[in-house]
TrEMBL record:
Top-level taxon of origin: Bacteria
Family of this protein: Belongs to the iron-containing alcohol dehydrogenase family.
This protein's record includes keyword Methyltransferase: no
Entries under Pfam families matching the protein: ADH_Fe_C, Fe-ADH
Domain Fe-containing alcohol dehydrogenase-like C-terminal: 192-401
CDD domains referenced in this protein's UniProt entry, alphabetically: Fe-ADH-like (cd08191)
GO MF annotation list: alcohol dehydrogenase (NAD+) activity; metal ion binding
Source organism: Streptomyces brasiliensis
The protein, known as: Alcohol dehydrogenase
SUPFAM superfamilies reported for this sequence: Dehydroquinate synthase-like (SSF56796)
UniProt keyword list: NAD, Oxidoreductase
Domain Alcohol dehydrogenase iron-type/glycerol dehydrogenase GldA residue range list: 14-181
């Protein structure tokens, strides 16, 4: 059985990507190219870290005015965007630097668009609604998992709507991404685990995504245009890296080589999802996270074993290749057995970092299954990427099996 292969390769990416330990040293030069008054967006923890303070000092040493917003919150509440725009809208800011996890990076990207074009962030919910380039943004991730440093989407939690909403536009793409693994060494163990689970889920979902017919009209109006030969390159690289690096990070969190490989895998995952998009696990996790107040990474990781089993009948070749990439598949066995070996190895990697692999552990209540399914089906931007059609009933089945920790193999 041959894998699904698209006839077109599509990538969206920052103008510049710098990767490697210590590469944050390039920030003053990069920022001098794009601005004289830089707004640095981060969170309260990162603002107190020595490396962060040193970066700000180095930037100011280049003669650049620096303002710091250090109130970014997890899951990016809409209120954060409103505060940034209100506080800095008339301050003469001409560039942004985002330092932190996915929420910090998403906050900077979407704030740059609102600062440039005005209005409320709600005006840009959806795809291709940002009217033009925002203020230039440089992203510096301090976690290895979200891929937000290279994606052109920001996910905002709108408390009044009670849901996460995406702002998706090529105009949110960063001017540059500076990926320095040294900045992840201080990352708390739980956050390291959750973001690693997120990266692994990105890679598996993207590699097994739906292949789409990418006409010029479709490409001009949709951010996620499906699995394709270029995204597959990033997926293969990322999966291979995580197969060994995750165990190394768990064994020794200060291991800079393992940290570097994990962060490179997360970058690969970000490049893949930026074009192909995530799918069922991400669509279903959002309402679960809102109900249980559990992390995004652990949520998608806990769902992944059951989403993989649901999708297996339509992606045997892809899961078999995952089995080969992860060194888990016997090449003499049947494609289906190789695919099952790949799925089992992915589950083992989730367990290596301490990710829960059932939904009961997350605190999901069975009485909420129908509500979660209803909300997941509204995320059409994500469900459209899943290789097997999702229905309300199939989502409820995924939830039930996930709650019961039922790892039996499903059949269509």
């Amino acid at each position: 059985m041959t894998p699904c292969v698209a006839s077109i390769g599509v990538l969206r990416q920052p103008k510049t990507v710098l990767f490697g330990p210590g590469e944050r040293r390039h920030l003053p030069h990069l920022l001098a190219e794009i601005g004289r008054h830089v707004l640095v967006v981060t969170d309260a923890r990162m603002a107190q870290v020595t490396e962060f303070k040193d970066m700000v000092t180095a930037i100011e040493g280049r003669g650049i005015t620096v303002s710091v917003f250090s109130e970014a919150e997890p899951d990016l509440p809409r209120e954060n965007v409103l505060t940034v725009v209100d506080r800095y809208g008339d301050a003469g800011v001409d560039a942004l630097l985002a330092v932190g996890g996915g929420s910090c990076l998403d906050l900077a990207k979407v704030s740059a668009a609102v600062l440039a074009h005005g209005g409320d962030v709600r005006d840009y919910y959806g795809e291709f609604l940002v009217p033009g380039p925002g203020l230039p943004v440089i992203t510096v991730p301090t976690t290895a998992g979200t891929g937000a440093e290279v994606t052109c989407i920001s996910v905002v939690f709108d408390r009044e709507k009670g849901m996460k909403v995406g702002v998706a536009s090529p105009h949110l793409e960063a001017y540059a991404a500076v990926i320095d693994p040294e900045l992840t060494v201080s990352c708390p163990p739980a956050l390291t685990a959750a973001t690693a689970a997120d990266a692994l889920t990105h890679l598996v979902e993207t590699f097994t995504d739906r292949v789409k017919d990418v006409t010029p009209e479709f490409l001009a109006n949709h951010l996620y245009v499906g699995k394709n030969p270029l995204t597959d390159i990033f997926c293969r690289s990322g999966l291979t890296l995580l197969n060994s690096s995750l165990e190394g990070v768990v064994a020794d969190p200060s291991d800079i080589e393992a940290r570097s490989a994990t962060m490179l895998a997360a970058y690969n995952a970000g490049m893949a999802i930026n074009t192909a998009g995530t799918a069922a696990a991400h669509a279903i996790q959002s309402p679960i996270g809102a109900l249980t107040h559990t992390s995004h990474g652990f949520g998608v990781g806990a769902l992944l074993p059951y989403v993989m089993r649901f999708n297996l009948p339509t992606r045997i070749a892809e899961f078999a290749e995952i089995g080969a990439l992860l060194g888990a598949a016997d090449p003499e066995s049947t494609p289906l057995d190789q695919a099952k070996a790949g799925i089992s190895r992915v589950e083992a990697l989730l367990e290596t970092v301490g990710c829960p692999t059932d939904l009961k552990t997350l605190g999901l209540d069975p009485k909420d299954f129908s509500y979660v399914a209803d909300q997941a089906m509204l995320a059409t931007r994500l469900t459209a990427n899943n290789p097997r059609d999702l229905t309300h009933e199939s989502v409820v089945e995924i939830l039930q099996r996930g709650y019961d920790n039922d790892r039996t193999w499903w059949s269509v």
